[in-house]
Design a protein that fits this description.
The protein has 474 residues and is mainly alpha-helical. It contains 23 helices and four strands. A four-stranded parallel beta sheet has the order 2-3-1-4, with helices on both faces. 36% of the residues are buried.
């Protein structure tokens, strides 16, 4: 199995500016013509772009960029056979051209010639092993062929190369759901992928994905496979601690304590292990030992950043002032009637995940998880990442910003799911934006989860969060 590299230079799906040979005809400025053609292509004016690329080819019949650009236009306009014909010529002229083979594979996939598509994608990997998009494309073809273990492997490869590759995450989840016998498929995955150091990221990402999508027992098994590769991987120990209930004889407790007191780990590792060991001793009803580890873990974590509650008080007062004194006087005339979004918000550990799971069990509801789309769009529209300042800018033209906020957010939501009637957004901190939601999307549903304050705060204190919650750990 080819080892997957960790990083790849960022590139778009259809990239034109590769270093390929162009015409040396000084009477015709090929580079300027290419730039103009690419401009029209990106603007969606395919007819004008095609005219320019054909003009280039009349001067330089073997211009790779112009030919490849024409194949992209053929793809965009649904002329699949024409695109394949052009790309065959492209790959004959330039055999080491990953983008060309990738697009050729996409076109063969659309046409249903899956073996041809596989051959093209494998050629891309031979040329550029860290081309993360092509692993996702491979997964798609293997899924169509019913080879789910290979589909899962390739989606995992894509995620290992680009952890925030949303399309690959979505495809992986769908592959899990469509699979009639996921347990057997995961077993076959282990046969295909040796449990060795070079496959550490593959097993880690598989375990995390299974955990995220609710396959607890399968994820536990894969986390244990991760430990077979890296016995001292503290994040895996903590992940396991969240998924199982310990008894006093569990050997993992001793392993974690031995690692905790060794000189092989730093304070950041001790934070992970401290929370994990604390959870284990709580399960065993050894509460004093449990609290000792949790207390130390919180202290170590708290040393890594500075925080004053006055910052939160000031922000909250600003939000209250803005909506109570200023925003209530504005009347938005144009409001979207779209009912797609369901906002689930509240404190961490207040039951938001359970509510999301219950809702997403319905066939018409898609769970998008903890996404920061709304806040990111607001920051983009107001050109600031300061919430208080963004409200001030919002107030200068509330109708325009409100309308754009609703339109852009709903458009972004559809990238998570194209056809679901409802889509949940579980960004807890959307509570700061409830007023904006009411103005921009008045038909959206908002679910505020609450819990007994003491229970809620204790639960926060016992947990290490992936996101940044500055008030925690104290």
């Amino acid at each position: 199995m080819k080892k997957v590299k960790k990083k790849r230079n960022k590139k778009t799906k259809f990239q034109f500016n590769r270093s390929v040979e162009t015409s040396k005809n000084t009477n015709f400025d090929v580079h300027k013509a290419l730039e103009l053609g690419q401009h029209f292509f990106l603007e969606g004016n395919f007819q004008k772009a095609e005219q320019i690329f054909l003009q280039i080819l009349s001067q330089d019949p073997q211009n790779i960029i112009a030919l490849y650009s024409l194949s992209c236009i053929a793809y965009q306009t649904g002329k699949i056979d024409e695109g394949i014909k052009i790309l065959r010529k492209v790959t004959e002229l330039k055999s080491e051209f990953p983008d060309g083979y990738n697009l050729l594979g996409i076109l063969f996939n659309i046409k249903g010639e899956l073996q041809e598509a596989l051959n093209c994608y494998k050629r891309v990997i031979d040329l550029e092993p860290d081309y993360f998009e092509v692993y996702n494309n491979l997964g798609n073809v293997y899924e169509k062929l019913g080879q789910y273990e290979m589909a899962i492997l390739n989606y995992i490869n894509a995620i290992s190369l680009k952890p925030d590759f949303e399309l690959a995450h979505n495809n992986l989840e769908n592959a899990f759901k469509k699979n009639g016998n996921l347990e057997n498929t995961v077993d076959n995955f282990e046969k295909i992928v040796p449990i060795t150091e070079e496959n550490f990221l593959r097993y880690w990402n598989l375990a995390k994905a299974l955990q995220d999508y609710g396959y607890i027992q399968l994820s536990l098994k894969q986390f244990h496979n991760v430990l077979l590769i890296k016995q001292n991987h503290v994040s895996t120990h903590r992940s396991i601690s969240k998924l199982k209930k310990y008894n006093p004889d569990d050997p993992q407790i001793n392993e974690m304590e031995k690692l905790y007191f060794s000189k092989a780990i730093n304070n950041a590792d001790k934070v992970h292990l401290g929370f994990a060991i604390g959870k284990a001793y709580e399960d065993c009803k050894e509460y004093e030992k449990s609290f000792e580890f949790i207390l130390n873990a919180n202290k170590l974590k708290r040393l890594t950043y500075e925080y004053s509650i006055n910052e939160t008080v000031k922000l909250t007062d600003n939000i209250i002032y803005f909506f109570d004194r200023v925003f209530k006087n504005f009347q938005i005339k144009k409001k979207t009637s779209d009912k797609t979004p369901i906002f689930i918000l509240g404190m961490p550990r207040s039951g938001t995940s359970l509510v999301e799971q219950i809702l997403s069990s319905h066939s018409e509801v898609y769970a998008a998880g903890e996404i920061a789309d709304l806040k990111n769009i607001l920051f983009h529209l107001t050109n600031t990442k300061d919430i208080a300042k963004s409200f001030d800018i919002f107030g200068q033209d509330p109708e325009k910003v409100s309308n754009l906020l609703g339109i852009l957010y709903l458009k972004r939501m559809r990238k998570h799911s194209e056809d679901s009637k409802y889509i949940t957004d579980k960004d807890l901190y959307n509570f700061q934006l409830i007023g904006l939601i009411a103005f921009a999307m008045p038909f959206a549903k908002i679910i505020h989860c609450t819990r007994d304050p003491m229970d809620n705060c204790l639960s926060i204190y016992k947990n290490l969060f992936s996101g940044f919650h500055p008030y925690a750990y104290d």
